[in-house]
Amino acid sequence: MSAARHDIPVTREWMRAGEAFFAGQLATLGDGDLDGPSALPGWERRKLAAHVARNAEALLRLVRWADTGVETRMYGDPDQRGRDIEATSGQSAAELRADVQRAAAELADAMAKLPDERWQATVLSALGRTIPAAEVPWMRCREVWLHSLDLAAGATPGDLPLPFAEELVDELAGYMSAQPSAPETELASIADGRRWHIDGPAATGQPLLVRGDPRELAAWLTGRTYDRSALQADDLPQLPNWL
């Protein structure tokens, strides 16, 4: 685990910028555009916006858990996430936009008020992973930056902050290394020469090499279908799905 993912001032700044960027992308869309497709297969833009709003609410529960010590999971049952998204996406365009803004503001406010020592309290992710509360801002960073791309309102991977993208590639390389179907792969940044290694289940010492801007690498590793000609490789390996 990279220390940057738990560096509260760093991740909260990435989060603040990401919230503003997502809001800006959403604002470029007319009300009728919300019914159009996002870049996520099968998801309309309004459903994606609903998801971002409800994710802020779910992460707020973790911040409150850290603050009070009272267990408050992201979702009360396995189906709550889907139910909440469907209910939220049925709002009018004005209500949906206001909901996105309100939920983001409430999460940011709760984080600002959390005492420093409570950031080390342990909580559970939606997948049941034990994490320190200090990881919650990072989780929100991923949400708002990646879904800003998914809104299909004109954003590209190049809009991601480079340090955030490098941190995301670092996390994703670790995640892929733990997946039994991941081929051994070397990722190389054309920005500064930094490298990441995906071990794969049976490392041979002859990894497939993929070079590119870390922002493009992050988009590819998370399954975004942008212009993959920006990546340099003899043949892009087939990697497991992320989340």
Strand segment count: 5
Gross morphology: globular
First and last CA, distance = 17 Å
Structural class: mainly alpha
Instruction: Supply the CATH architecture of the largest domain.
Output: Up-down Bundle
Compute the number of structural domains: 2
Q: Main sheet, how many strands, which sense, barrel?
A: 3 strands, mixed
CATH topology of the largest domain, which one?
Four Helix Bundle (Hemerythrin (Met), subunit A)
Radius of gyration: 18 Å
Q: Regions with pLDDT < 50 over 5+ consecutive residues?
A: none
Q: CATH homologous superfamily of the largest domain - what is it?
A: dinb family like domain
Helical content stands at 40-55%
Kindly estimate the percentage of residues that lie in beta strands according to DSSP.
Answer: 5-15%
Structure description:
It is built from 7 helices and 5 strands. By secondary structure, it is mainly alpha-helical. The protein has 2 domains: 153 residues, dinb family like domain (Four Helix Bundle (Hemerythrin (Met), subunit A), Up-down Bundle), CATH 1.20.120.450; 71 residues, Nonspecific Lipid-transfer Protein, Chain A, CATH 3.30.1050. Strand 3 and strand 4 form a beta hairpin.
Task: Give a nutshell description of this structure.
By secondary structure, the protein is mainly alpha-helical. Helices cover 47% and strands 8% of the residues. The chain has helices at 8-27, 45-68, 80-89, 93-113, 136-150, 162-177, 214-221; strands at 122-124, 130-132, 185-189, 195-198, 208-212.
